[in-house]
Inverse folding.
């Protein structure tokens, strides 16, 4: 046999190192049944085995879950319970025993709820409800705090104690809520509506730990959407440190426990007093530094060349003013000269246009006068001819023509007598001849 034999502890160390260097064995999820369960030992660690039945045979692997991991379990393991575990494969060098070290464990029956939660988380994340840009900052000194938790619960007591110890000056309003049971999330939404209406400075939503079924109301999509749309900042402290619910993703601040939530929203009064004193001292220093700076600056300005010779302040401006005045006068003269030339040109143009227009109008008037004279002469001649023709026609029918031929006209009472019956004996009548008139008396007897 070889003289270079390997020691047992060296072998175990080597195998242990091989197992830990294999990444596939460092993050496993196993499903199995708890066997050889003895509970927690005096140090708080849990040692048991995971087993399963396969093709008529029983297979098992030793398991350990140290106190640092098992203290956050929200259920109590027991013999024969089927569980899902997150683990790594290792080897205990003292005995050479192969085992798994469990970091997280949950009942296998909770798998469906976890799937539902995962689907909802992916859905709301895709809509941007978890975006850090949506998160509202917490006030440094909230004017008041709304606390939503189960009445009489340890979580509520821890919150109230921490707020009072840190800053008893802040008003706190407790709004009791059911934290589990069918439809509890609807009551929580109604309380949050009151928080919005009353415009609180900040809101704490908290409860203690429990199973995923106990915490399921805090995984309801309707509750998560309402919190995401709130104007009041919301801080969640639901369950233990390992518990993460849907409301934690949409809250403005997620705390691992209700106690941490109370600490997060409440400033420490002593720190505030120290900060005030520090700020007061710093302000005094800044005021003193500012005064010193301003005094020095004032002294420099008082001793400056400009202030000792104030005429220098406007000397250059006076020179620029004189130059601008001269330029303005020159521009004014050139402008007046140019406008005068334009005016003379326009006047000459208007005079020429007026003379041309006057000559044209005189020619038109002369033409119209000639035409009017021609029309007047023609009209007068025409009227003369018409008058002569009318006189000739009138003369033809004149009674005087008849009188010349020996006829006469007898009138009685200025009426022509055309019948003997119109006069009587003794009537006086007037007889008109061609060369005069004569009176006569009627005598019908003769």
């Amino acid at each position: 046999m070889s003289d270079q034999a390997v020691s047992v502890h060296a072998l175990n160390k080597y195998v242990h190192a091989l197992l830990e260097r294999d990444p596939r064995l460092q993050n496993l999820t196993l499903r199995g049944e708890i066997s050889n369960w003895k509970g927690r030992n005096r140090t708080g660690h849990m040692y048991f085995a995971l087993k399963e039945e396969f093709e008529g045979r029983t297979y098992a692997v030793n398991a350990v879950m140290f106190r640092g991991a098992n203290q956050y379990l929200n259920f109590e393991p027991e013999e024969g319970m089927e569980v899902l575990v997150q683990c790594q494969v290792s080897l205990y060098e003292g005995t050479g025993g192969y085992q798994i070290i469990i970091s997280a464990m949950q009942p296998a029956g909770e798998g469906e709820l976890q799937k539902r939660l995962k689907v909802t988380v992916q859905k709301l994340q895709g809509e941007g409800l978890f975006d850090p840009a949506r998160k509202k900052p917490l006030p440094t000194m909230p004017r008041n705090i709304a606390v939503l938790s189960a009445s009489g619960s340890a979580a509520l007591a821890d919150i109230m104690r921490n707020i009072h110890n840190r800053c008893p000056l802040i008003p706190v309003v407790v709004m009791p809520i059911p934290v589990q049971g069918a439809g509890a999330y609807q009551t929580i939404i109604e309380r949050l509506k009151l928080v919005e209406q009353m415009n609180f400075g900040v809101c704490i939503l908290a409860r203690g730990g429990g199973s995923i079924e106990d915490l399921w109301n805090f995984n309801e999509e309707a509750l998560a959407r309402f919190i995401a749309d709130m104007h009041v900042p919301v801080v969640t402290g639901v369950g233990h440190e390992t518990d993460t619910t849907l409301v934690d993703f949409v809250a403005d601040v997620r705390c691992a426990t209700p106690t941490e939530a109370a600490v997060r929203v409440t400033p420490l009064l002593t720190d505030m007093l120290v900060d005030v004193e520090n700020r007061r001292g710093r302000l005094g220093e800044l005021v003193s530094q500012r005064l010193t700076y301003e005094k020095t600056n004032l002294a420099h300005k008082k001793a400056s060349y400009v202030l000792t010779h104030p005429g220098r302040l406007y000397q250059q401006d006076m020179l620029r003013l004189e130059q601008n005045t001269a330029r303005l006068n020159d521009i004014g003269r050139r402008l007046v000269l140019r406008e005068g030339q334009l005016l003379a040109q326009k006047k000459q143009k208007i005079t020429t246009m007026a003379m041309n227009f006057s000559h044209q109008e005189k020619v038109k008037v002369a033409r119209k006068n000639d035409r009017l004279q021609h029309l007047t002469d023609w009209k007068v001649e025409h009227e003369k001819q018409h008058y002569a023709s009318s006189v000739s026609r009138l003369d033809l029918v004149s009674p005087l023509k008849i009188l010349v031929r020996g006829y006469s006209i007898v009138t009685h009472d200025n009426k022509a007598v055309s019948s003997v019956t119109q006069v009587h004996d003794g009537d006086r009548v007037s007889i008109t001849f061609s060369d005069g008139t004569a009176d006569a008396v009627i005598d019908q007897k003769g």
Remarks:
- The chain is about 50% helix and 20% strand.
- The mean pLDDT is 86.
- The chain has five domains: 8-112, 127-267, 271-303, 304-396, 402-441.
- The longest helix spans residues 311-396.
